[in-house]
Design goal:
With 286 residues, this protein is α/β, with parallel strands linked by helices. It has one domain: P-loop containing nucleotide triphosphate hydrolases (Rossmann fold, 3-Layer(aba) Sandwich). Helices cover 37% and strands 21% of the residues. It has a six-stranded mixed β-sheet with strand order 6-7-8-3-9-10, with helices on both faces. α3 packs across α4 (124-137), α4 crosses α5 (153-165) and α5 (153-165) runs parallel beside α6. The longest helix has 18 residues, at 183-200. The chain is globular. The protein binds adenosine-5'-diphosphate and magnesium ion (MG). Magnesium ion (MG) is lined by residues 55-56.
Length: 286
Amino acid sequence: MAVFLYQAGEKMQLIKVEDLYYRYNNSNDWVLNGVDLEVKEGEFLVIVGHNGSGKSTLAKMLNGLLVPDKGIVKVMDNQTSNHDEIWDIRQQVGMVFQNPDNQLVANIVEEDVAFGPENLGLESQKIRERVAEALKAVGMEEFRRYAPHNLSGGQKQRVAIAGILAMHPKCLVLDEPTAMLDPVGRDSVMSAVQRLNKELGMTVIHITHFMTEAIKADRIIVMDQGKIALEGTPEELFSQVDRIKRYHLDVPQVTELAFQLQKEGLDIPSDIFNVDRLVEELCCFK
Ligand SMILES: Nc1ncnc2c1ncn2[C@@H]1O[C@H](COP(=O)(O)OP(=O)(O)O)[C@@H](O)[C@H]1O
Ligand SMILES: [Mg+2]
């Protein structure tokens, strides 16, 4: 699995978005309205924001499925507006979407995962290696001979992720990959994604409306009306419950509880987002 590993030390910039504007079909409304963003190699970035704030449009910009009306999107040294560079960019930035059923095309899991490397023109031994490695990375190796329709939603999403991994991208962009899953499926996908990031150093950009997923990030950005409205670590963002709510977002339940207790005059910190931490703080009052 060493192929996914990145060297420790200074993190390189992988994606740079500069002053990005976009509107669909020349409508009057800018869906992306001046976005600036840098993503570093190995980072786990979460994007949140209410419906229609431009998250999916931004995601599609990152691998050149859409190209800017104004501004630039760069992936390493390539720009999405340069037609010749799109192929390289698509290989470096893989996308996973919400609906697992729309993403699996073959009748057998391993054939599905092989689809990407086959398109890259790799020889069959290499393809087999990549398929095995990618399925292992998402914990789906024992399902390699299964038909996708016999898998659960979470398993299908992990196969979809494996299909992207088999192309050896530098970055995974996941657009609400857990939105259609039950809690068990959601956990299995999140665990796989976190493992890819933490153990294999994969850069992850994860769009979600589940705040319990957002707290796993190195950095969160909040989109609002086509702009980045807030940005920070989970601790920085969730210590501003009132501000988060202004953008019609939830905060984790435990954070809300800590916030309300603080409002009632209890002397506890404002950046609590897991139960253990709240219990620890409350135990101080024993
Ligand atoms: N294909 C499309 N054609 C026209 N308008 C679109 C299209 N896709 C999205 N939009 C509009 O762009 C805005 C942002 O959408 P989107 O990027 O999907 O936001 P989000 O993912 O945050 O919900 C919305 O107002 C949406 O209606
Ligand atoms: Mg969306």
